[in-house]
Amino acid sequence: MFYYFVRKLLFLIEPEKSHTLTLKCLNSKYIQILIDMFLKPIPSRPIKCMGLTFPNKVGLAAGMDKNGEYIDFFSKLGFGFIELGTVTPLPQVGNPKPRIFRMLSEEAIVNKMGFNNLGIENLINNIKKSKFKGIIGVNIGKNKNTSIENAINDYLICIEKIYCYTDYIAINISSPNTKNLRNLQFGVLFKNLLKKTKRKQKEMHIKHSKYVPIAIKISPDLSRNEIIYISQQLIKFKIDAVIATNTTLDHSLIHKIKNSQIKGGLSGLPLQRKSNDIVSILYKQLKKNIPIIGVGGINSINSAKEKIKSGAKLIQIYSGLIYHGPKLIRNIIKKL
Ligand SMILES: Cc1cc2nc3c(=O)[nH]c(=O)nc-3n(C[C@H](O)[C@H](O)[C@H](O)COP(=O)(O)O)c2cc1C
Q1: For the chain, how many structural domains are there in total?
Q2: Is 145 helix (H, G, I), strand (E, B) or coil?
Q3: Are the CB atoms for 168 and 135 separated by under 8 Å?
Q4: Domain for residue 74, yes or no?
Q5: CA–CA separation, 53 vs 46, rounded Å?
Q6: If 0-12 CB within 10 Å is exposed, 13-18 middle and 19+ buried, where does residue 115 land?
Q7: What is the CATH number of the domain that holds 124?
Q8: What does the DSSP assignment read for 100-114?
Q9: Residues 210-242: pLDDT tens digits?
Q10: Residues 128-137 pLDDT 10s
Q11: How far, in Å, are 70, 118, 224, 231 from residue 268 at the CA level?
Q12: Cα 321 to middle of ligand 1, angstroms
């Protein structure tokens, strides 16, 4: 109840402003003390995935804490893991504002952020400062000014820099707001990306005597045949996990509402079915060879269970947290 009251006030403010304002307030020392006093830690329900032990199945999806500024706050909400980023080798401003739009009646968000972030060095400094001892993933991408043909270099730079500071790395080739990025999911570009990424992982593994798993984050706008092809390549190159899915460009899912023409990636409830279907196809193809981290439209205990039934081993949440608040996370963790 309390969250829905606060939400009413927050939703009066422009979405990106209210996002930043809320996180800044919640991150203050005094609020942290209150959280420690009133939010009891949730008992851990460990699960093994990618060779790591996660305290529970529920993670924060990429994009919420792009620069790793709020790691300790999000860990207090009970998340078993936190995926930071997307971060790029160099800082960049992203697309012009406004670039986040809420569709309250649909429980949806459309965003066209374009990888606004302060760069990988800044993220590393923030990870070093955090007290969180749980699982951190870092989601990496390419800079806007890097051509798609040279994109792999940006991923390799990020892997090399972040390797010692993260538990897993997520390769984002599915954001719809960076021109041509999704081309990396197909053909020679995809194979080269997987080959060079695995080579870099092996080199870093030897250098640091530490194995950091690599996950690939895919789009929901793929055909069945494309998913089958992607699955075969993921198995061939021994990729550690797949994250399904990013936001969708399919706005027919919200065609009845007045803002449906706004360009950008759609997330939240309208994405749920589409993203579950992708997880199901992946699961049939990958069997138990490669774990799936399911994300897209989780807004209740039932939808979390549905994602797991579709084949996800772990789940992540973004829009559900905006619409239902921290209680959703705790309820799901307790009931899964
Ligand atoms: C405002 C916003 C920003 C996002 N930024 C990123 C990002 O930087 N990298 C990424 O991989 N996914 C990003 N996402 C996608 C989410 O991580 C997630 O895959 C997607 O929103 C579907 O989950 P949901 O329905 O629970 O929101 C973003 C989503 C939103 C709404």
Answers
A1: 1
A2: coil
A3: yes
A4: yes
A5: 6
A6: buried
A7: 3.20.20.70
A8: EEEEGGGTEEEE---
A9: 999 999 999 999 999 999 999 999 999 999 999
A10: 999 998 999 9
A11: 22, 26, 22, 25
A12: 12
